[in-house]
Amino acid sequence: MDSFEGINEFVAVAESHGFSAAAKQLGCSTSHVSRQVSRLEERLGVALLARSTRMVNLTQAGQVYYQQCKDLVIGLQQANEQLSSEQIQLNGTLRVSAAGAFAENYVAPALMEFAKGYPELTVEMDFDTRMVNFIEDGIDFAIRYGRLSDSGLVARKLVDRPMAAAASPEYLERYGVPTHPEQLRHHSCIIANNDHWVFEDNGKSMGSIRVDGRWRSNNSGAVVNACEQGLGIVYMPKSSFSDAFHEGRLVPVLTPYWGKGSSSWIVYQNRRFLPMRARLAIDYLVSHFANWQE
């Protein structure tokens, strides 16, 4: 078994480009990681890492060795995960970063159901739109909407989020009902994430229309409330308006031109570093929303 010692630490350093970051991911000390990797290099008789004061890079031999070792580590992880969730007693704290009405109204209740099955598990949800540092902030995964930048993180699609435009009956009575997206240039629009709205005509994009208005907010609840108060027209994922449409507080407008929108995603670090509670929660959410419709 001595020949396997240090491999897990080496792969962690290779993927995080640093001993401190690898130690945080593995839940051990930096000195332990450094010691294990050094012993591995001694046994192999070759330098796997090129160390500097600011960064750790793979040597040519280290790159070749990493490509072989990462599959071994992932294979071992997958073997361990064959245990059924019923046999696992989850504990500790699951930390989730989320933002938006979808996360508040749908993801949070789903995680509550998940937590019911594990009495020893604590769940913390932080509703914030800022970009998180998964290691420093101790976040297991995040729920995000829209296009994702190529950050090196893993992203799994949760649901597609088609768009809808809406306004209050009072606003439409006072300012009229728009019949084409171009008319929005002459209306007060409530702006959430951006002021360039993309509509479609028979499934084809009409390009973006720049809108302006009296109310802006990155909180979807505040946007919907402003719309209900008659401050303008809003264009957001349809699920944001479910109750307001049903109860007549808001009225759909420009229905033929609604776009297919974007998607909501679960975003997290390399799967190999996720604790079991995070892996099971992610799998639960993906399964829960598999057949979800707006």
TrEMBL record:
<dbReference type="Pfam" id="PF03466">
    <property type="entry name" value="LysR_substrate"/>
</dbReference>
<keyword id="KW-0804">Transcription</keyword>
<dbReference type="Pfam" id="PF00126">
    <property type="entry name" value="HTH_1"/>
</dbReference>
<dbReference type="InterPro" id="IPR058163">
    <property type="entry name" value="LysR-type_TF_proteobact-type"/>
</dbReference>
<comment type="similarity">
    <text>Belongs to the LysR transcriptional regulatory family.</text>
</comment>
<dbReference type="InterPro" id="IPR000847">
    <property type="entry name" value="LysR_HTH_N"/>
</dbReference>
<dbReference type="InterPro" id="IPR005119">
    <property type="entry name" value="LysR_subst-bd"/>
</dbReference>
<feature type="domain" description="HTH lysR-type">
    <location>
        <begin position="10"/>
        <end position="59"/>
    </location>
</feature>
<protein>
    <submittedName>
        <fullName>LysR family transcriptional regulator</fullName>
    </submittedName>
</protein>
<keyword id="KW-0805">Transcription regulation</keyword>
<keyword id="KW-0238">DNA-binding</keyword>
<dbReference type="InterPro" id="IPR036388">
    <property type="entry name" value="WH-like_DNA-bd_sf"/>
</dbReference>
<dbReference type="InterPro" id="IPR036390">
    <property type="entry name" value="WH_DNA-bd_sf"/>
</dbReference>
